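Lab notebook, bench 4. Still working through the backlog of constructs that have no structural model yet. Next entry is a single chain of 409 residues. Request: give me the structure tokens for it.
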Amino acid sequence: MKIAFLVSQFPSVAETFVLNQIVGLTNLGHDVHVFADGSVKNVKIHENYQKYELSKKTHYYGIPETKLLRIVKGILLFIKYLPSNYGVIFRSLNIYRYGKASLSLSLLFTTIRLLEKGPFDIIHSQFGTLGLIATSLNQLLPNKCKLVTSIRGHDVTVFLKKHPGIYDDLFKEGDLFLPVCEFLRERLIQEGCDEKKIVVHYSGIDCSKFEYIQRQRVSGEPIKVLTIARLIEKKGVAFAVEAVSRLLSKGEKIEYSVIGEGMLRENLQQLIEDMGMGQQVRLLGWKTHEEVKRLLEESHVLVAPSLTSQNGDQEGIPNAIKEAMASGLPVISTFHSGIPELVSDGVSGLLVPERDVTAIANALAYLISHPEVCEEMGRAGRRRVEQEFDTNILNKQLEELYMGIMQET
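Model written out:
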């Protein structure tokens, strides 16, 4: 099959789940192309991006930011493609049907890029918001595609809340919707999506890339706590910082490292300094995949204090938790969205209420004083991700889902 992935940015260090699907489908013999607005600046490229020469399969729309340049380039595209694809070109400029996307010429640029590289069997939008673009593209392109849309959290919990009914056409014309957890599946049904079109499809990790390590803590050494997250509200990192502060004040020896970047970095750094924890708590910024693996191997506990943000934004299931469990780390996280579908409370980790600093501190204190429980949880966590969240298994399931809709008339 020839498959078009629609993403916002590629490559992106925060969206390895997209890369995992591309590599998996490529290994299964499919021709996967990626369409994006651009790439993340100064991103640390994953080794698979180079290994699979994905730069040759990545196509940027090239929409100029300035209005004048956009008009000039739009005219040139119009002249070039009008003789052979006049119907597509004129339909993309129908402002009465496509509104701002047509008037700004962004739909023209997007359509031509897929037209150049197509035809495709499937257009797979990696977020619900991108499914809106896919719906328009499928109406414009000469060869109709099957439309697949992944639902990952913000696209339903925030975007749809702000724009009620905006997915109505997508729900009608889309062939398959893939929420990444049961929680989001229920949200889709509540919003009017046909239940028969919905299949929960978890984002996976390559378990073979994470070695299970049975950790031994030397008596008296600090417990090494790790968080891997974008530094934004819904990740709840400030609550973990405060929980660590409480335990440090009681004499516990803790080294807390946070991998990630985001708009709250300065706030968090100020919080750490105000609490006098500059030596014990470090904000490390983004790290390469290999650096993340090394830090996972050196750590004793992962803390992922996800929460519902003020605007309603919620997670699906963070991949960082899966990677930690694959490496044998016990997890402290929250009763949030799809996380309980991955972390069994008391079995592979400990789950606490959102925004509860005391509960996070108590859970961490418990694991500090019960290293034997950490070992049991680590083994249980590894088994869980191997059985349900391994990307190789999930990519094969995705292929079967694709084949299923391709057989439908």
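Notes after review: The radius of gyration is 23 Å. The domain at 207-388 is CATH 3.40.50.2000 (Rossmann fold). Flag for follow-up if needed.
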